[in-house]
Design the sequence.
C-alpha cells in the first residue's frame, strides 16, 4: 500500500534535494534523474509516488509495466506516464535497469491563477484515461530536452525561474495530450486481485480527515467504480469474491472506523464529524452510527 508520507519524509527516505528557495506561495516542484535517486534503506532504485500529495510526470526508460484496475500496460523501452494522486496505479519495473527522469508538483504549483488551467479538467488527468504514451526516438529527444531544461532552470538564480518551469510542465502536459495512448492489455488473469487492491488503496486515500472543513470525496460504490474505470456491478462482484463483503459494506465499515477515531481523538462536534464523513444531516449520521455500532455517537464518545 502507498504510504501517506509527507514531502519531508520523501526527501529523507530517497535522498533527493529539496529546492532551497521554494515557498508556500509558489507551491512545490522538483525534478529528478531516476538513476541518481535510490532508497536509502534498501539501496534499490525507486520511482516513488505519494498517496495523495502530488502529481507526477515520468519519462520511463527501461522495461516495466503500469497496472491500472483491470488493465495492464507493458512498457518495452521509452514511455511518458502522467499520474494524478486521485487515480491509483502500480508501476512495476521488470529489472533494475531503469533510467529516465520525473518531476513532481503539488496542485497549487499549477493553480488556475498561476497557470490559466485547471488540472482536474485536463483530459490527461481524467478518471478512466490511460495516460501512458510510448515514445519514438525523436519524441524521446524532445521529452529529454524539456526534463533537462527543468533540471537546469531549477538550479539557476533567475528570479522568475518557477514561472519558466511552470511553462515547461505545461509543455509536457500538452505534449502528452497530443500523443496516442499505449494500448492496454485487459487481462482476466490477476485482474480481480488488482481491482481489489486498487479499490482498498483508493478507499484509504480518503483518510485521515484532518480538518472539520474537509469532506469525504468518495462515498458510494459508483464513485469508486468511476475512479477505477470499471462497472459498479463488476467491482461489487470482485470485492464480494475477494473479501466476502459488498462494496457498500466495505465503505461503510471504513466510515464507521473513521467516525470512531474522530469521536475519540478530536474535539470536533458530532455535527462537524457528520459533515466531514459526507452526511448532510446530523440525525442521519447518528442513526447510521447507531445501526452499525449499537451506540450513539455521544454515547461512544463518553
Sequence:
Amino acid at each position: 500500500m502507498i504510504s501517506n508520507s509527507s514531502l519531508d519524509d520523501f526527501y529523507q527516505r530517497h535522498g533527493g534535494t529539496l529546492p532551497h528557495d521554494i515557498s508556500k506561495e509558489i507551491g512545490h516542484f522538483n525534478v529528478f534523474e531516476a538513476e541518481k535517486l535510490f532508497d536509502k534503506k534498501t539501496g534499490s532504485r525507486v520511482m516513488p509516488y505519494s498517496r495523495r500529495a502530488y502529481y507526477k510526470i515520468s519519462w520511463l526508460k527501461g522495461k516495466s509495466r503500469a497496472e491500472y484496475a483491470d488493465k495492464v500496460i507493458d512498457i518495452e523501452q521509452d514511455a511518458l506516464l502522467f499520474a494524478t494522486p486521485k487515480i491509483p496505479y502500480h508501476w512495476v519495473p521488470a529489472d533494475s535497469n531503469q533510467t529516465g527522469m520525473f518531476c513532481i508538483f503539488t496542485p497549487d504549483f499549477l493553480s488556475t491563477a498561476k497557470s490559466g488551467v485547471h488540472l482536474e479538467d485536463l483530459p490527461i488527468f481524467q478518471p478512466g484515461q490511460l495516460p501512458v504514451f510510448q515514445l519514438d526516438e525523436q519524441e524521446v529527444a524532445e521529452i529529454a530536452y524539456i526534463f533537462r531544461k527543468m533540471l537546469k532552470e531549477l538550479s539557476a538564480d533567475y528570479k522568475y525561474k518557477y514561472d519558466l518551469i511552470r511553462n515547461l510542465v505545461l509543455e509536457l502536459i500538452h505534449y502528452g495530450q497530443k500523443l496516442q495512448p499505449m494500448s492496454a492489455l485487459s487481462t482476466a488473469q490477476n485482474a480481480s486481485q488488482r481491482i481489489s487492491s486498487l479499490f482498498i488503496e483508493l478507499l484509504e486515500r480518503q483518510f485521515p480527515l484532518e480538518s472539520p472543513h474537509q469532506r469525504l470525496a468518495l462515498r458510494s460504490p459508483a464513485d469508486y467504480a468511476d475512479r477505477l474505470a470499471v462497472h459498479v456491478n463488476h467491482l461489487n462482484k470482485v470485492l464480494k469474491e475477494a473479501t466476502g463483503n459488498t462494496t457498500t459494506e466495505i465503505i461503510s465499515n471504513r466510515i464507521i472506523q473513521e467516525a470512531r477515531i474522530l469521536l475519540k481523538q478530536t474535539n470536533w462536534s458530532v455535527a462537524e464529524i457528520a459533515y466531514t464523513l459526507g452526511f448532510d444531516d446530523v440525525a442521519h449520521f447518528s442513526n447510521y452510527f447507531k445501526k452499525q455500532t449499537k451506540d450513539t455517537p455521544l454515547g461512544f464518545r463518553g
